[in-house]
């Protein structure tokens, strides 16, 4: 599989978002483990998780423990696999997702994630979402402290705007390596952040990258969508004999050399299909067709 840079590391050009394996509609553990193993078999070396990926009111860290079990039971080498996790959000029973960017909470959350993952240091630890009740610099300062203490190797931020990325970069310097924002054919709000990541040399990790082609795990069971708004993805997929999702992920890779999409999966065949996008090269004509359909699709949604 082709690789891309994430800090001083090289990881697969397409990662795996493990969230669907732990939230509503999640598969049984055997299928969940098989899904992660299928991604690893296909060459995926970036696994994305978070302490808040669990059922509402469930025990924090379900997904982290699942990822740790998947790596421990995998039959091949895992020394080059980077596990990226996040802290700063919660899922209490009967409530929406919560945000807690207090430095004390983030440090305690990182300690708990460290234990669940069973590692000496977390490969990539990310602030899940800025907390409007906490000064952003204080939350990022917790990441700096965790780096200084050797409890995390690399740091990232998620759901941030361009100004926040610059402020985080001013605090962390080259130890800030990634930004994880929602971005897809249907959702282009993070175009400025994508461009800034290219300028600063930061990996841009789109979450819910198949929006407009498939529904996000946050929206319920995955299914094809988009219709005429994003028709070119389906047309090119038929011409190539591949899935529209694979064409979508290949399109992401054309957006910038810093983009590393992290599509979710809850079945081994889906994980394998997504991984295949890393080695699918779009022609100039195909890329132009996709750009036109994205522009039209987003305009219709505006």
* Rg, nearest Å: 18 Å
Low-confidence stretches: 220-225
Structural class: alpha/beta
End-to-end separation = 36 Å
List the total number of helices: 10
Beta fraction of the residues? Answer: 5-15%
Tell me, what's the shape? Answer: globular
Sequence of secondary-structure elements: EEEHEHEEEHEHEHEHEHHHH
Nearest-integer average pLDDT = 94
Largest sheet properties: 7 strands, parallel
Roughly what percent helix? 40-55%
Task: Identify the strand order in the major beta sheet.
Answer: 3-4-5-8-9-10-11
Number of strands: 11
Structure description:
There is one protein chain. With 302 residues, this protein is of the alpha/beta class. 41% of the residues lie in helices and 14% in strands. The longest helix is centred in the last third of the chain and has 18 residues, at 284-301. It is globular.
């Amino acid at each position: 599989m082709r690789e891309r840079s994430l800090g001083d590391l090289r990881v697969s050009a397409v990662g795996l978002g493990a969230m669907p394996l732990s939230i509503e509609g999640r598969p049984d553990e055997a299928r969940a483990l098989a899904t992660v193993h299928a991604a690893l078999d296909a060459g995926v070396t970036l696994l994305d998780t978070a302490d808040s990926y669990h059922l509402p009111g469930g025990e924090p860290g379900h997904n982290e423990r699942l990822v740790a079990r998947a790596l421990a039971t995998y039959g091949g080498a895992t020394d080059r696999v980077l596990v990226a996790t996040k802290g700063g959000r919660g899922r209490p029973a009967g409530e929406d997702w919560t945000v807690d960017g207090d430095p004390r909470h983030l440090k305690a959350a990182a300690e708990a994630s460290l234990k669940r993952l069973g590692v000496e240091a977390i490969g990539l630890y990310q602030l899940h979402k800025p907390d409007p009740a906490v000064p952003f610099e204080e939350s990022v300062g917790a990441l700096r402290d965790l780096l200084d203490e050797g409890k995390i190797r690399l740091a990232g931020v998620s759901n941030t705007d361009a100004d926040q990325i610059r402020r985080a970069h001013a605090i962390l310097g080259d130890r800030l390596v990634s930004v994880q924002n929602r971005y897809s054919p249907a959702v282009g709000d993070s175009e400025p952040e994508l461009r800034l990541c290219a300028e600063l040399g930061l990996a841009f990790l789109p979450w819910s990258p198949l929006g407009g082609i498939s529904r996000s795990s946050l929206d319920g069971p995955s299914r094809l969508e988009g219709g005429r708004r994003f028709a070119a993805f389906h047309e090119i997929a038929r011409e190539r004999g591949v899935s529209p999702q694979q064409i979508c992920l290949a399109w992401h890779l054309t957006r910038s050399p810093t983009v590393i999409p992290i599509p979710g999966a809850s079945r081994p065949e889906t994980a394998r299909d997504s991984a295949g996008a890393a080695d699918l090269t779009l022609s100039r004509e195909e890329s132009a067709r996709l750009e036109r359909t994205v522009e039209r699709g987003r305009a219709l949604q505006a």
